[in-house]
Fold each of these.
Amino acid sequence: MKIKSVRTRVFEWNGKVVPPAANFCTNAADLLYERGDSMGSFRFHGWLVCEVETEDGSIGLGNAALAPRVVKAAIDQYYAPMLIGEDPFDTEYLWQKMYRKTHAWSRKGIGMTAISAIDIALWDLMGKEVGRPVFKLLGGRTKDKIRCYASKLYGQPLDALRAEAQSYVDQGFDAVKMRFGWGPKDGPAGMRKNLELVATVRDVIGPDRDLMCECYMGWTFEYARRMLPKLEAYDIRWLEEPVIADDIEGYTELRKLGHVPISGGEHEFTLAGFQQLLDRRALDVIQYDTNRVGGISAARKINALAEAYQIPVIPHAGQMHNYHLTMASTASPMAEFFPVHEVEVGNELFYYLFKGEPQPDNGFLQLDDHKPGLGIELSHEHIGAFDVIE
Ligand SMILES: [Mg+2]
């Protein structure tokens, strides 16, 4: 069996979009002096789909959500030619070939995102060829179902935040994640507003549900150090990406303070990147995203490393490429789940582009033992609301 073609398409949403509210979520561009739409670096409304086809007509489906037009060019110009004529079951060899032949520019970022999309497609293809779900190829079930947390609760008026948090309680979730809307430039008044957000959500969900808080790299070390003692009273399960991904020492130092567990990793890449984070004791929770970190081939190695360090892996974003790994690893106690919603940040596009994603039942997700591969396919239901770039 040989790979015959690698097809890439970018799907850009041209349908209705919910405009971002003020103080929606902090992000790394907040420190710049521009006062325009800093959320532009946070929202993304395009998705890359990568299809790897074999001579017998089987197609593996991969995807990536970072800078999809550039990732498409990287696959088309560099990686696709390396794959033609190869056996899709040679995943480790193919991963190393892609990684080593473009090592000068692909270790992190765009190149690794492209490798991730292809690698996910290869695992989907292998599953389809043998008629088994991907998690069965990764070691099978380690849990009867996957606990998941509702991840949204962006900054908004407190009564609306309260109602949204209550809706997740009503749906049976026992864990939720909220976003901070204010950062270093907003001074003590912003700190107070952030604390009002946390207090509101904690009040709604009560003491017996997990509460996680997201900074999306919008704070600085100094700001985070001042916020952490104030957050301690709310029993936060983790504080996510308080500083930019390159500030590994910042993560280590914040974690050492011991007020609140620190999570991160959705902007880190490969086994080597996570080895650094773990060796430097930077994280309490690992949050790689399979469609950035190097695909399933890289993610499963990080799972093994995390198991050795006894650090939990709770991948960024949920979605099928992450759920299969979560099902197959004892290092992964839980998954993120983005509630299905009108297109806003861009995370929601996954549901508009693919069908087959499981929906939570009382806070748990289930994967089908009999659906081959990842178990998703392209949906045509909303195809008219996308511009398709071939
Ligand atoms: Mg995050």
Amino acid sequence: MSKAGALDLASGLGGKIDKTDVLSAVEQYEKYHIYYGGAEDERKANYADMVNKYYDLATSFYEFGWGESFHFAHRFKGESLRESIKRHQHFLALQLGLKPEQKVLDVGCGIGGPLREISRFSLTSITGLNNNEYQIQRGKELNHIVGVDKTCDFVKADFMKMPFPDNSYDAVYAIEATCHAPDAYGCYSEIFRVLKPGQYFAAYEWCMTDSYDPNNQEHQRIKAEIEIGDGLPDIRVTGQCIEALKKAGFKVTWSKDLAASSPVPWYLPLDKSHFSLSSFRLTAVGRFFTKNMVKVLEYVGLAPQGSQRVQDFLEKAAEGLVEGGRKEIFTPMFFFLAQKPHTESQ
Ligand SMILES: C[S@@+](CC[C@H](N)C(=O)[O-])C[C@H]1O[C@@H](n2cnc3c(N)ncnc32)[C@H](O)[C@@H]1O
């Protein structure tokens, strides 16, 4: 079961960071970002520290608001958010052509929501790679509860230097995770190396779209809000990801920004004008309640000092994401399917 209560939120806040150090971790995290004078080079050079601090601080909020899967979804009318999230995962499995018994790698697996769903949907064995220890601990607990702990496991490592031999996986996927890489080519090259020849890599990437104008100050502000609110060193445009895939050696089978054809906008759950009882905690009213609840929990000492500051940068993320989505300058679902050729000459 996902930890969804207010006390779970308070007790998980800070992840592996000592509770007395949460406030200083928040301050250090904020300083990496443009809003606090931080620079892109510094975020890239210190990506592991920056991203790990972010997930130690934000994971219990994610679990409280989203559940076990930390991603958006392409969504049809009449479909609940949870249904659309599962269908988004099934779509990925279908595109990869997963077969029972295959060995699959989930790059940047969070607490393993997608891993549990995809492994049960396709009867595959999935390894979740994640650099965040707290998330892995949660993932192991949840795998045990649903009974996939014999077929699926977690490895704590950086996806820029994976501890796996060449040609070890039948398929690799990444859901809204490789956007944290300081450089896409370095990350995709590692994925290429560990994937067996002839096999596929599929991903949902966070990207700026072709409508993003790097000289437009409003666009720059929205991009910076998404970066601070989501632990990102920089957000690449879609074309840069395709170039990086090709440079790493992949043949790109197809790619598409699925946000462009989503009948229900992916950012709707966070939009201030939207209200939903089934995803209440994500709505503006729900976030307002959470904000006040965290304030009280911090005041009475149940949540560590600095908790409200985490909620503040997550609120910035929500605002940046909704604006970026509305203006169609940002997408969290640039999908691609790429194949590692059978031989080097192919
Ligand atoms: C937005 S979450 C998505 C998690 C998961 N794919 C899901 O959809 O639930 C991004 C994940 O990428 C992981 N991550 C970020 N940078 C990483 C790195 N350098 N190496 C391994 N994992 C990383 C984070 O720890 C986090 O689990």
